[in-house]
Amino acid sequence: VTAQAWLLALTVFGACAVEMVEALTLIVAASSRSRRSAIEGALAAVAILAVAVAALGVSLVHYVPLDALRVVVGALLLTMGLPWLRKAWLRASGHLPLHDEDAIYARTVDQLATGASPASPRRDTAGFLVAFKGVLLEGSEVVVIVFSLGATQHRVLLASAAAGAAAVLVFSVGAVVARQLSSVPENSIKLAVGVALTSFGVFWIGEGAKVHWPGGDLFLLVLLGAFSAVSAAAIAWLRAPGDPEVAPT
Amino acid sequence: VSATALRWLRASVHAVVDFLVGDTPGLFVVALAVVAMAFALADVRVAAAIVLPVVAAGGVVLSAARGRTQVSGATRAREGRRRGSPDAPRAGA
Hints:
- The structure holds two protein chains of two kinds.
- Chain A contains eight helices and no strands.
- Chain A is mainly α.
- The model of chain A has no long low-confidence stretch (mean pLDDT 81).
- Chain B is mostly helical.
- Helix content of chain B is 77%, strand content 0%.
- Classes of the chains: A mainly alpha, B mainly alpha.
- Chain A binds chain B through residues 71, 74-75, 78-79, 82-83, 85-86, 89-90, 93, 95-96, 140, 198, 201-202, 205-206, 208-214, 219, 223, 226-227, 230, 234, 238, 243-247, and chain B through 19-22, 24, 27-28, 30-32, 34-35, 38-39, 41-42, 45-46, 48-49, 52-53, 56-57, 59-61, 63-65, 67-68, 71-72, 75-76, 78-79.
């Protein structure tokens, strides 16, 4: 197994874990009205994502020329990685509040409570929709990351396995700790995944455009080191004294 | 049927634009710039290896610096209103 395969698996695992934590918060909140409807909503979204993966995945890998695929995939990874980096820097430097799963849980439960009571304790449309939408939105990012990284390296199975492992881990832990999802160090994971997505993005755009990287594939490690160093410097700079930090809410 | 189809089409386009651009259109432009520069510099051996990461990193630094300024301005405005100062700048101004 090459270093690039490990990097691919870790990146997909980290990205999937972050997205799954966010989705699980909404599912647990929706369960406060009807557990059955929340689970059905989540499963319906997973089914739609599975169909999208089967339909898009095969055509992407078999019918799109590899160089074009690499450029498009690299651009997609950059469009996701750059905003993740920005947000992680601003959060780490105190200019944006950290992602608070407890607050999101409480807000979602409040919003659901203001709606009409479920007609039956076993069926709840609002809870179904909250779980469905949460899993569909967060899952679509996972699908893009799995196929982007997997297809360009012909390792869709490895990427899918890493995503599956992250989903199993998050949902297993979530089933036990339920509402203690806020203890997951989400911003640190997001920062690491942002660095990896940005590095892979620049690397694959270059590969697709026939750029000759010094050192070949090993240049990916240079990119990872460079973006990590820039992140550390940027966070330190953004934390510079004199900047008012975000007020507690 | 056509009105429903149009509504679905609009929603789909909106979802794709939101997914790609989101609330940081500047970073989407940075990603496009990296693609354009990769093709422009593909034959210049070392230049692309230096320019592409610098453009990507520079784009995020600029965007984060702008984000910090916006957050700082909003915080100052909130503090000003809390103290009841008539000269306090408004958030987003």
